[in-house]
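Bench notes, afternoon.
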Amino acid sequence: MSSRWRTTARWLLGPAYVVAGILHLAVPEPFLQIMPDIVPAPKLVILATGVAEIAGGLALLQNFFPPIRKAAAWGLAIYAVCVFPANINHFAMDMARVDHGLGLAYHIPRMLLQPLLVWLVLWAGQIILWPQRLPDKHD
C-alpha cells in the first residue's frame, strides 16, 4: 500500500513542480518581487530555479532509474529549504502593506506547510520511510 501512496504523491508533486518551474520562466516578475535583496543576480536565480523545478519534477516522475528519482527528491527538498527566505520576505513585505497583501490566511499555512513539503518529496522519492511501520522485533 505504501508504494501506491508514494506513486500518487510523486504524480501530484512532479507536475506541480513542472508547472511552478514553467511559471518561473514565463512570468518571473512575481518571484523577483519577493526575492530577498541579499540574493545576487535575482533574474538568473529565478531562471535557474525554474529550470531546476522542471527537471526535478520530471525526474521525480520517472520510474526507470531510481537513483535519478532519489536525486530529484533530494534536490527538490533542498530547493524547498532554500526558497524559505523568499517566503519569509514575502510574508514581511505583505504584513508591512496597509492592506496586508495576501494576509495571514495565506502566509501562515504556507510557512507551516513548507516542512511538510520537504518531508513529502523525500518520502515520495523513497529517501525516507517514515511513517512506514517498522518491522516487529519478533518477525
